[in-house]
Every structure is written in structure tokens, then in C-alpha cells.
Amino acid sequence: MIKYLGSKRKLLPVILRAVHSFPDARTVIDLFSGTSRVGHALKRAGYRVLANDHNAYAHALARCYVQADREDVIDGARKLVAEFNRLPGSPGYFTETFCVKSRFFQPKNGARIDRIREAIAEKGLEPDLEAVMLVSLMEAADRVDSTTGLQMAYLKTWAPRAHNDLELRVPDVLPRARFGKGAAYRLDALEAVKRLEADVAYIDPPYNQHSYLGNYHVWETLVRWDKPEVYGVACKRLDCRSRRSVFNSRPKFYEAMSGVARNIRAPVLIVSFNNEGYLTRSSLEAILRERGSVGVIENDYKRYVGAQIGIWNPKGLKVGKVSHLRNKENLYVVAPPEWAHNIDTALEATGSQLTPFD
Hints:
- By secondary structure, this protein is an alpha/beta fold.
- It has helices at residues 12-20, 37-44, 56-67, 70-85, 93-100, 107-123, 127-142, 189-195, 212-215, 217-224, 250-263, 281-289, 340-350; strands at residues 27-30, 48-52, 183-185, 200-203, 230-231, 236-237, 268-274, 293-302, 311-312, 318-320, 326-335, 353-357.
- The strands form three sheets. It has an eight-stranded mixed sheet.
């Protein structure tokens, strides 16, 4: 899967054990699905997953890794990957924007991306297979980019991987889950909580001012293929200035998070929240306790790479230093009081630091 700030790759075993602690669970909402790494793992474990994210690139990832089933798309995906890998490059909008005006990719790879993306559009594929091919292209581009993992900037000198030739691979699409076919939605989170219903809801909201659209605008453009006007050195889409989530606003975050917790249609909540987020731990726990009993699993981890290299001014001079290199990702398990024993099971299964709350 693509490099992604906030990826829960290392936290997956803890999340899965928390969900497994509720043995009657069949359907899980992934409200802020991002790369769908969590949804993909839940589907592999047999759960029916309802994945949601308001960004187009995240919706494509969810259609590929949650909604599409291997038995329905694998033959077509293999044929198309082989066909598209034989296509020569043909430079166009993507090359001009992300290889000439900026330096996210080598021009040879930008030209291949342009040609393959146009080929996907020309095929008129059914939605699940189209999503698989878009993800195949996104992941191929991610393997030859020249960034630290965020698209707010590119490296001053080419990353070694940027010299490699772009090559598509078939994504790891899973067979239909034991508890039923998953679904991918592209809704605002505050609308999704009113429409989707499940046994468990996994909630991993943005927690600061940094917009995922701004951080991954290249993927948004690659999926939408709307060839937008851009601004700045990083050639961001103009709508990065206007498509702002309430979850990226400190004044609005408390009300938004309260609305999610209050309205989501699932008896069990599993909430991932960083100690650098807009809410203090006590404030978040107060919101969650309105839904029932709460337990928390503390997980220590290293901050993302951009936070480890200091602060630089526009001339490239280092002008600041890193305040800290470790963060805590707290996983809250919330359930009705009569299911408190399930929370105890979730906490005991993790081997992490445990703090139960009434």
C-alpha cells in the first residue's frame, strides 16, 4: 500500500484483537478509511467492512481493498496489468505538472503514468475493476516517487527509487469476506454516521490542522483525472484551499468529534487518537463515556520522518529543532456497560499498558 502519514500498520494486531473481543460482531464501519489498511485487515479476518472517506483517492483504495472481491476482478486485473505495462509513455498533464513544474517523479515515469491513466479512462471499466487498476497505478507511482511520504514537498535531489522504471502490479485484492460483501462510501463523516450501521465502528479521525487532501493531492488528481489548476511549488490543487474538513479545525473539532460519538450507529466504538491531537485525553474520554464503558490501550511509537529532521526555512537553512521523537497512539474501546467484560478481554489481549474506566 502507499506510504501514508497516520498509517496503522503497526497497530493492526491491537485493533484486530480489540474487534475480536466482541465475538458477535459481523460488520465494522471504518469511518475515516484513508488507505483502507485497517479495512483490508478486517476483511481478511472475515468481517463485512463499510469503509468511508471523503477524498477520491481514499474512496478508490476502499473500493479496491474493501468493496472489490478477488473472484470478481482478478482475471481482468491481471490482463490489464500486463497490457498497461507494455504501453509506451506519452507525456501530458501529469508529466508537465508533477515532473516539469515540480519534481515528484522522473519525466520517464510521468509519461507512463499519463498514458496508463488515459488508458484506464478509455476502457470504461466497471467500478470495482476500475478501482483496482487506479490503485495499481497509484501504488506503482508511489514506488518511484521522490518524497518523504508526504506531497507537501519533494526532495531536493532524486530519491534512489525515483530512477526505477514504473511497473504495475496486481493489488492484494481479497476474496469476499465470510460475513458478507463490503462497501465503499464517499461521504462526509458527519453524514456517514447517520447512514451507516454496524456492530463495531473504528474511528481514526484527522487530529490536527494538516489536511490529508493537501498531503496527498497528487493521488487525488490521479484518481479524479480532472487536470485542475494548481498553485505553489508543490503544484497543489486549487481546491486544497477550499475543501477543508471540520476535523482539521481546532475550534470545530470538539463539536465534530462529539457528533460522531453521539450519532454513530454501532454499539461498540474503537477510537484511535494521537496525543498530539486537538483534544486532551480527559476531554476525549469524557465524550466517549457518554456512550458507555471505556478502556484505553496506550501505544508508543516513533513520529513520522518529517518530524525527525528539524525545521527549515524557504532558503533551505535549518532554523529549528525537533521537540520530541516519540508519540502515543491511544486506542479507546467503548461499549455498553453490560459488555464491560468484553472491554476487559480486549485490554488483557493486547499486552499493552491498560487503563480501564467506568
